[in-house]
Sequence to fold (730 residues):
Amino acid sequence: MIYIFDVDGTLTKSRNKMDLSFSQFFYDFTDRNRVWLISGSDKDKTIRPDLVLFVNGLPITVIECKFLGTEGSNYSEGINQLDRYQKSFLFLTLILIFFTSYNSEVINVGPLSSVIIFSILIIAYYLLNLILNYISYSYVQISSIIILLYLKESIYSSIPLWIYVTFLLLFFYIIFFLLRKEKIKAIIGLSILIVISFFFFDDKQLVIESDNNTFFIKNGDLSFNYYTYSNGKDKHREEYKNPNFISYDLDASYVMDVYWNQSKLNWRENFWGFDKKNLPLNGRLWVPISDGKFPIISIVHGNHSMQEFSDDGYSYLGELLSKHGYVVNSIDQNFLNGSWDGDFRGNEMSTRAWHFLENLNYLKTLNDDSLSILYNKIDFNKIIIAGHSRGGEAVNIASRYNTLSAFPDNGKLHFDYNFNIIGIVTIAPTDYRYKRNYELENTNYLSIQGSMDSDEESFFGLRQSNRIKNISDSLINVNILVEGANHSQFNSSWGKNDVGFPSKYLINNKYILPDWYQRKILSYYLFNFSEFISKRDMRSRDVLINSFDYKISDNESKKIISRYSYSSEFILNNFESDDILLNKEIKISVDSSGKYSLENLVFRGGKSQQNSAFKIESNGRSNIEFILNNKINKFSNLGFDISNTLDSTNFNIILNNKGKKNDTVNLNLFNTNIELKNYKFDYLTKKRFKKINDINFKTYSININDYDISSFSFQFNDSSKFYLDNIVLY
Fold:
C-alpha cells in the first residue's frame, strides 16, 4: 500500500514546518510504510540532508542515508539527492570562495570591485550549470549566510553594513531574474549595482587644501639645455628620431640569450623594429648652462606598458635639479617593459643593470670628446644613480656590476666600468626579481616608498639597505616611508593607477596623495640627498633623518618615517645573532615584567625583510638594561630603531653615569603604524581573517657626549608590543 500526502496545509500549516510532536510520529510512520509526498513547491524544498559535517562553521560534508530494499531508496536516488544538495548551496559557496580569494590578491573596494566579483560569480554559476532552481532553505544555507556576515565583520569591516547587504541582495536579485530569463530586470539590477559602486567607491584622490611649504625647495639660479641621444632609428618618438647626439646599438646576446628567446617576441620586435642584438642607447639630458663640471644624476624607470613610454616621466626632476647644478639623465628602457602579451617577469633585470651602465659609458665618451658640446660638463667623480620600481633593483645590481670584471651569469662578457658612484637612490624598488642578492659597500643610499603602493606591497628598499656595509667616513643610509604615496605617481607618465586594465578599477584611490604633491615629496628628498652627498650640506642631512607628521588639511595629517644609519656607527647590537642576551660588545639584562624574543621580520605580503629585531611585549613597565663591555667615551651619540603602534607612549632611557648620578631621558615615541584604509592590502593571515601592517621603524638619537656610561636602560611604560633594532654609537 502507498500512502499519498499533501504537504502544505495538510501535514503542516500553510508554509510552515511540522510540529515537533507530529514530526516524530510522521517519521516513524514513514519508516513502516511507503509514503509519497505531493507539494506545490520545487522538489529541492521538500528534502533535507540527513547529516551535515561542519568544521568551524563551514559545511564540509553532506551525507545522505538510504534504506536499501525499499522502492525509490537506492544508491542512484541517493546520488541524485546529493546532487540536488549541491545545487542548493553551491551559490553561496561560490560567494565565499571568490570573496576570500580575490580580496587577498586584487579586489578590495575600487569602483568596480563588487560588480566584477558578482559578474565572475554569475559566469561560474552558469558554466557549472548546477543551479536549476533557486536556493532552498537548509542548515547549510543558514550557515553560509552566517559566514558571509562574519566576512563582513572581519575582512570587509571598512564597508558600511547596509552597503554590503545591498550588494548581496542586488546580486541575488540579478541571479533570480537571470534564471527566470527576465533579462531586462536583471540588467536593471546590474545597472543599480554599477551606480552604487561608483557613488560610494569613487575614484577620487585626496585633495590637498593648501601647500604649506612642508616640502619646500627654493628655485635654482641656473637655466638648462635639454638634449636627447639615440641611434636615430626609433619608430615612435620624434625626440629619438632626430636626437641631438647619435649613439649606437648594444648586442645583448650574452646578457639575455635565454630569456629573450622565451618571450613572445613577434609583437615586441615588430613594434620596436629590433631584437636582442640591437638594443638602442636612448636617453634624455638636462644640462645646466654655466661654466664648470656638474654632478650627474642618472635615473631609470621600471616596468610599465612598453607602449606608454616611461622615460619622459622624470622630466620634472630634470628641470628642477638642473637649475640647482646637476646634470640629469633619464634612460629609456621601454623595450624591456611588458606589453599585452606579457613581460620578461623579472628575468631581464641583469639586462636593465648592464644597459644602465652602458648609458653611463656613452655619456662619458661625450664628456671626454673635445668636439662635443657636452665636453667636460659632467663630473664623473660624483655620479648618483637612481631607479624606480624594477629600475630601483636594477641600479642596485648595476652598482655591483660596476666593480666586477665580468658578467657573473656569462663570463664571456667582460666588464670594465669602475665609475665613481657616490650615491644610490631607489624609488619604490623591487628586491626579489634578480637571482642574486648583492651586498654593497661604501655608498650613500636613499630609498623612498609610499604606504599606498599597490604594485610593490611593501618597502623592499629596506632589504638592500640591510645589505650595505659602510666603512668609509661620512656616508649615510636612509629609508623614507611616505604615508599616502602610491607607486606610479612618482613618474608623471604613468598616471595615478598602479596596475593596468581591468585591475585599475578595483583599487580605491580615495586615500592616495595627488600626483603633484607626491612628486614634490620625491623632489624634496632627492634634492636634499644629492646636496648632502655631493656638497656636504648638513642642513640637507637633517632633512633626511627627520620623522614628522605633515598636514594635508586642517583636520588630517600624514606621516614621514625616517630610518637611517651612518658609516661612523659602532654597532652594539643589531640582533642578527641567535644569542638574544649576549654579544662581544654588550650584555642584555631583562626583567620579568614582559616577554622578550628575537623575531625574523616579514613584510605584510609574506616576503622576508632580511632582518631580525628584538621583540618586547610589555605589560606596562618593562625594563631592559644594556651593560657595555668596553668604554665608549669617544662616541657622542646613542642611536636605536623602535617600532611603536601607540599614539602616545612614554619611553625612558636611564643613563648610568660612572661615579655620578644617573640621568633619565624621556621620549614620547613616534607612532610608526600606518593604517591601510580600505586598500588593496587587506591581507588574510593563515591564522585568522585579519588586516595586517608592516612593522615600521623610526630611528632615534640621544646625545651622550658629556657622559661616561657603563650601562643604560630602556623602560617601556605602556602595555603594548614594541620592536627594537640596531643599537649603535656614533
